[in-house]
Amino acid sequence: MINIASVSLAQPLETIADELGRSFGEYGFAVVRDHGIPQDLIDEAERVSKAFFALPADVKRAYKIEGGGGARGYTPFGTEKAKDAEVFDLKEFWHVGRDLPEGHPLSQFMAPNVWPTEVEGFRETMAALFSAFEVAGGRVLEAIALHLGRPRDFFAASVADGNSVMRLLHYPPLGEGAPEGAIRAAGHEDINTITLLLGAEEAGLELLARDGQWHAVDVPAGALVINVGDMLQRQTNGQLRSTTHRVVNPRGEAARRARYSMPFFLHFRPDFLIEPLPECVGEGTAAAPEPITAHDYLMQRLREINLV
Length: 308
Known about the structure:
The protein has seven helices and 14 strands. It is α+β, with helices and mostly antiparallel strands and 308 residues long. The strands form three sheets. An eight-stranded mixed beta sheet has the order 1-2-10-7-12-5-4-3. The protein has a four-stranded antiparallel beta sheet with strand order 6-11-8-9, with no helix packed on it. A two-stranded antiparallel ribbon has the order 13-14. The protein has helices at residues 13-26, 39-53, 57-61, 122-147, 156-159, 230-235, 294-304, and strands at residues 6-8, 29-33, 73-75, 92-97, 165-171, 185-188, 194-198, 205-208, 214-216, 224-228, 245-247, 259-266, 273-274, 292-293. It is globular and about 55 Å long. Helix content is 26%, strand content 19%.
């Protein structure tokens, strides 16, 4: 049995910061209710996401950007592999990133978005959802800052114009031809700062706890699952954990249903130098990792998962 925090973001952050921090320190995960993302926007995003994935394979593949590392547009089924995994994950996905104005100093790190013309309202809906995710993520980061004893706006500058990515995920019904050992998403850690996940109500999401056992993450309808990514783990020198997690294959009737979800990978700015906070280094702590920019770290990790 695991005791993951489940908190309301409508509460004053001072009253939930340490509960979130405890959960992130022990499990790397928490559940957040009252996150402020409107349900009608979520419903519309699910509708247009399903409409895109229902398009013919050749139409979807036209949006695959060669050499782009999957950062924008479409990534076909059977492309991504978890680090050190033998077989690919049973999923396809679409990425929406930040739109930067022409001439922005960070535009070299962030390609323009591409948008499918076949699905009416796709661009407007996904742009609105990206912004709503960013606001909710900023509030979670404020709570984390308070837990760390920092001012609540401590993370604001480091994530301003960050290289955040929203992923629309489709796990098709399980087919007969799946490779031996393949699951919807093999055990992995997220690369980024924090992840906000919509659509985890369907069973399948599991985390690997300190006891060496996989535990299901129970999510109330409409809530967000939040987990710590490798970048924040690095910045806190392991005080907040980036935990291995996976999406296992369902059994019975659920195996014949598709699964859809929408994670938002909140990132630092590409030029932000990730180095351990002084209060997270010292006697009794792990050896501090070397400083590295967020962009260099991202590229290093993307190579490991077969995306660049």
